[in-house]
Design a protein that fits this description.
binds magnesium ion; alpha+beta; 4-stranded antiparallel sheet; 382 residues; 13 strands; binds adenosine-5'-triphosphate; 33% helix; 6-stranded antiparallel sheet
Length: 382
């Protein structure tokens, strides 16, 4: 990558700091156990927030490398806490506090304050939360997505292309972690479609995304890195020549789960290996050609959206066995032994500590916190 290109990928940076140890602030929204929700919000509100135990595990992983960590809740007091604590870098997993681009709120604040942080930047986190926008971009760039239509009002005429293809699938356009997704998301006729779309629009206060129901197998694919990742990585040997590491594919076999056709919130909430949980198969039992195809699609999906350092893309097969991209998670869950990305990393022999530190170091490198590997060493690799 030439210096101008590298500059484009860098958030507005302050002067480079020392190579560490750093004061790392972990920014997250926490699930508050037992706290009743207001009456007018969906019952799955906050389902994508993290348990404090996950925060503790991420902090412990970062501390194994000698850094100091502090947890700062990503709430409305965050700007003041940042000014007081003055972290060298933030490890960002905050889902945000609502609104149309909540996953972009914390990155936007950090860029405004010129504080280094990990992972994707503002625009990518905003777009990737919006599944319709994401699919429009992918479709425009020739990536395979199922035919879809967004409903803002609920009474829009259904496009003929979809009319011929019941059952259809209806989900909130801007949620994650299976929120608003259960067996009733599958609708068999127009009356059911209208009812479900109106339910989503009114309860979640956002458009409903309607897609062709994809009846085939389901996979998720993690990507690490960026074009210059090997220059800064603690594990340059993980990366292919293009700077990206494609993690082994995880298949979610949901056929025996609580919701046998849908990997929604209820199925996601079951502990791995328990009754009613999907089977997590990693690496997925698929032929090498399909593996290559899925990894290539996830890589393209990641790069086209401008994702940085880490993402996880969900894919389903259509009736003809062709992969169709569902969505990308630029803030994938990071609970060890539970989150899809952690299962994939572990199947590849990547320890949880190494996964977390890699995300931290790749983030740090974009802000000049790490010197690039000396040229001589780079040549040795090539
Ligand atoms: N068009 C579709 N056809 C069939 N199943 C679908 C379709 N869209 C979504 N699903 C099912 O619903 C699940 C959740 O959908 P999706 O991945 O789009 O949303 P999400 O809630 O953002 O997921 P995540 O937890 O990965 O953030 C999928 O994993 C899949 O099982
Ligand atoms: Mg998903």
């Amino acid at each position: 990558m030439n210096p101008q290109e590298r500059e484009k990928e860098k958030p507005p940076t302050t002067t480079p700091r020392r190579e560490g140890p750093w004061k790392v602030a972990l920014l997250a929204n926490i699930k508050e156990r037992g706290k009743p929700l207001p009456a007018d919000v969906p019952s799955d509100t906050g389902a994508d927030y993290d348990y404090i135990e996950t925060i503790d595990m991420i902090r412990a992983a970062i501390e194994t490398d000698g850094h100091q960590t502090v947890f700062i809740p990503a709430d409305t007091k965050l700007p003041y806490a940042l000014k007081e604590i003055k972290p060298d870098i933030c490890f960002n997993i905050a889902e945000g506090l609502g609104g149309d681009a909540r996953e972009a709120q914390v990155p936007a604040l950090l860029e405004m304050l010129k504080i280094p942080y990990t992972g994707s930047r503002v625009l990518t986190n905003a777009i990737s939360l919006d599944k319709t926008l994401t699919k429009r971009i992918w479709r425009d760039r020739g990536l395979p997505v199922a035919p879809f239509q967004e409903f803002t009002f609920g009474d829009e005429p259904l496009r003929p292309e979809l009319k011929q293809h019941f059952p259809l699938f209806v989900k909130p356009a801007r949620e994650g972690t299976g929120m608003g997704v259960d067996q009733k998301a599958i609708v068999k006729d127009e009356a059911e479609l209208r009812e479900r779309a109106n339910y989503i629009i009114h309860l979640y206060h956002q458009p409903a995304l309607v897609e062709i129901f994809l009846p085939g197998r389901e996979f998720t694919i993690g990507i690490l890195g960026r074009r210059d990742a090997p220059l800064y990585s603690r594990h340059p040997e993980w990366y292919e020549k293009d700077g990206f590491h494609r993690l082994p594919i995880l298949e979610l076999d949901i056929t025996r789960s609580v919701t046998p056709s849908v990997y929604g919130l209820e199925a996601k909430a079951q502990s791995v290996g328990s009754e009613g949980a999907p089977d997590y198969l990693c690496p997925a039992p698929i032929d090498p050609e399909m593996t290559r195809k899925l990894q290539h699609l996830a890589y393209r999906a990641h790069v086209i959206l401008g994702s940085l350092d880490v993402s996880r893309t969900d894919v389903r097969l259509d009736a003809g066995g062709n992969p169709r991209l569902l969505e990308i998670n630029t803030l994938p869950g990071l609970t060890p032994g539970y989150s899809d990305l952690c299962i994939q990393a572990s199947a590849h022999g990547i320890s949880y500590e190494d996964l977390i530190l890699e995300i931290l170091y790749l983030g740090a490198s974009r802000w000049g916190l790490i010197e690039a590997r000396p040229l001589a060493e780079q040549h040795k690799r090539n």
